[in-house]
Amino acid sequence: MTQSLSRRVVAITGALGNLGETLADMAAAQGADLVLIDQATMAMPSSHNRLVLSGIDLTSLADCQAVAHQINRYFGRLDALVNGAGGYAWEPLLGSAIEAWDRLYSLNLRTALNASKALLPLLLQSSAGRIVNIGSSMAAKAGLGMGAYAASKSSVLRLTESLAEELKDMSITVNAVLPSVLDTPQNREAMPDAEHQRWVTPAQLAAVILFLISEQASAVTGTGIPVIGRM
């Protein structure tokens, strides 16, 4: 089935990440207008179909509300939000700082929470609003040293489920993707002996996200979709 995001405005947080860049390219190829959001500085300029917002602290609700104002002024609408910002750390409880739990909570849950809350007024004006959160396959079961990361990603899934119930009569769907290890240069460097061909590529994960923000996914909400390759 051919999908099209023509005349749809899609906001992507964490736009400079491996997934964010791939998703932006694939969404643009389907005709989407883009809002690219990241804390780091992006070299690309804004254009008629792309709003670039650098230096955004998504752990700050005020920053997210400022983003909403700029989107409204630039495009006058928003149809989809992909909460791609996040972080990872391997942190056994013994010998590590307890602050790692707060840090991953902020990076993974608070960013999605703030962006969703701030951009919801714009999404409610869309005839088919979409929110997609990036969870993790470890939301179901944590491995060694993964407690803080898995707890934060499990919270993202609980946010997804709760918000989907809250919005299900308002023409907005809310879903999460739950990937295993992504095949990125950073992960290959960290795990050089792993079977990389079993991992999920950013393009494979982006394809699932693009389906979830498409018209074809109008009946899908409140789900956490595993995208685990051949792990």
In short:
By secondary structure, this protein is an alpha/beta fold. It has helices at 18-29, 61-74, 99-123, 147-167, 185-190, 202-212, and strands at residues 9-13, 33-37, 50-53, 80-83, 129-134, 172-179, 224-227.
Plain-language structure description:
There is one protein chain. The chain is α/β, with parallel strands linked by helices. The chain has one domain (9-227): Rossmann fold, CATH 3.40.50.720. The chain is 39% helix and 16% strand. The chain has helices at residues 18-29, 61-74, 99-123, 147-167, 185-190, 202-212, and strands at residues 9-13, 33-37, 50-53, 80-83, 129-134, 172-179, 224-227. Strands 3-2-1-4-5-6-7 form a seven-stranded parallel β-sheet, sandwiched between helices. Helix 1 crosses helix 6 and helix 2 (61-74) packs parallel to helix 3 (99-123). The mean pLDDT is 93.
Q: Main sheet?
A: 7 strands, parallel
CATH superfamily: NAD(P)-binding Rossmann-like Domain
How many DSSP H or I helices?
6
DSSP helix fraction: 25-40%
The CATH architecture classification is 3-Layer(aba) Sandwich
Radius of gyration: 17 Å
The strand count comes to: 7
Family: Belongs to the short-chain dehydrogenases/reductases (SDR) family.
Protein name: SDR family NAD(P)-dependent oxidoreductase
GO molecular function, one term: oxidoreductase activity, acting on the CH-OH group of donors, NAD or NADP as acceptor
InterPro entries: KR_dom (IPR057326), NAD(P)-bd_dom_sf (IPR036291), Sc_DH/Rdtase_CS (IPR020904), SDR_fam (IPR002347)
